[in-house]
Design brief:
By secondary structure, the chain is of the alpha+beta class. It contains 7 helices and 21 strands. The strands form 6 sheets. Strands 11, 14, 17, 18, 19, 20 and 21 form a 7-stranded mixed sheet that branches. A 4-stranded antiparallel sheet has the order 1-8-6-3, with no helix packed on it. A 4-stranded antiparallel sheet has the order 5-4-2-7, with no helix packed on it. A hairpin with a 2-residue loop joins strand 12 and strand 13.
């Protein structure tokens, strides 16, 4: 039976989506719930699963094209067929003779493989569902096994240096996600009066507590933020033409870095959850964000954002506010440093915290009081009681 594959409604405010990549070629066989294509909107990137088993008989919308919600993207036939049509490429093939689907490689992985001359089909992926990651490519290159690689300069004839005025460059086309991120960041800078303040927190108590529980630091920070927000709810607000809107619910967005962009899934009612539940939700949302399995509503409705830039070793950051929120908290890398404790030198795991806030809504004194409370809760909380 033929089925129309349409651009889905990926959120109440989403009117269109972009076809990033077809994961099944024309004529390719597909199983029920197997990803058919990758789609991006201004809020989320995800794979669209097949509604049934069959053959992809027609591809009507090519990669890179943005179309309205409800547009027919392709035709799926669940009946045996004598042939299929690719209207985009103008090629007719038979289902049983169709090429097998190409593995799903992200644009960043493809670029990296091309730069190093790596045949991606020869790699075993360590990502979700066996996908090849950037690290897989880098590890392969590091072994010296990349196809055609030889030691630098070996067997090469002398090459004259190019003119200083000549610059080699490679143009990387913008993805829909990259365009959206760029537009939002510029808009935020033009909208909010950005100011940043920095605090340092001692993670000794947290480090000792989490070692036996295999937890990251992020649940502790979210819990501390939630408690501080109860005393200073102005941090959980938005600018409106008629005044400042104080949000009654605390929905914390957590920035998740992808190979080719950034997503911010939301932990709803974060102030009502204990450490264990927070840790579970963080891990689940981050994993599904990286594997493009988030539902549209899971990246909407955030009232405050936290970005853990310290995961890559960064100490300080001045993150850009996620509009229309009033502030965003940055978490630096946790490092052991020499500090003064009770007039004595001690080695402690320390972390720099940064708060970028909208000065139209929040004054410096309020921002500093909020950060002081976050610091206090991180350093003095009895975590055993907060599980």
């Amino acid at each position: 039976m033929p089925n129309d594959i349409v651009m889905p409604q990926l959120g109440e405010s989403i009117a269109e989506g972009t076809v990033v990549k077809w994961l099944i070629p024309p004529g390719g066989a597909v199983e029920k719930d197997q990803p058919l294509l990758e789609v991006e909107t201004e809020k989320v990137a995800l794979d669209i699963p097949s509604p049934g088993a069959g053959f992809l008989t027609e591809i009507l919308v090519p990669e890179g094209e943005t179309v309205p919600v409800g547009t027919v993207l392709a035709k799926l036939d669940t009946r045996p067929a004598s042939g299929v049509v690719n209207r985009v490429g103008g090629v007719t093939v038979r289902p049983m003779e169709a090429a097998q689907p190409d593995p799903h490689y992200s644009p960043a992985v493809r670029r990296l493989a091309q730069e190093h001359g790596v045949d991606l089909s020869s790699l075993s992926g360590t990502g979700a569902d066996g996908r090849v990651t950037k690290q897989d490519v880098l590890d392969y290159v590091a072994t010296g096994d990349a196809s055609g690689t030889t030691p630098p300069g070996a067997g090469e004839a002398p090459v004259s240096s190019p003119s200083p005025a000549v610059h080699e460059e490679e143009i990387i086309p913008f993805t829909h996600m990259r365009k959206t991120i760029a537009e939002r960041m510029v808009l935020s800078r033009h909208t909010a009066a950005h100011v940043a303040t920095f605090f340092e927190a001692d993670y000794t108590g947290i480090a000792e507590f989490r070692e036996s529980r295999s937890m990251t630091y992020l649940p502790f920070v979210i819990h501390a933020v939630s408690r501080a927000m109860k005393d200073l709810p102005l941090l959980n607000s938005s600018w409106r033409e008629q005044g400042i809107a104080i949000m009654k619910d605390l929905h914390v967005g957590i920035a998740v870095a992808l190979d080719d962009g950034l997503l911010v899934p939301v932990i709803r009612h974060a102030d009502r959850k204990g450490l264990t539940q927070l840790a579970h939700e963080i891990a689940d949302l981050a994993e599904r964000a990286r594997n493009k399995r988030l539902a549209p509503e899971e990246v909407q409705g955030g009232t405050f954002t936290i970005t853990n830039h310290g995961g890559f070793g960064s100490l300080f950051s001045t993150p850009i506010i996620n509009q229309p929120q009033a502030a965003i908290l940055g978490i630096g890398s946790v490092q052991k440093r020499a500090v003064v404790v009770s007039d004595a030198i001690a080695i402690r795991p320390m972390c720099y915290l940064s708060l970028s806030f909208d000065h139209r809504i929040i004054d410096g004194a309020t921002a500093d009081r909020f950060m002081a409370k976050v610091k206090q809760h991180l350093e003095q909380s009895e975590w055993e009681k907060l599980l």
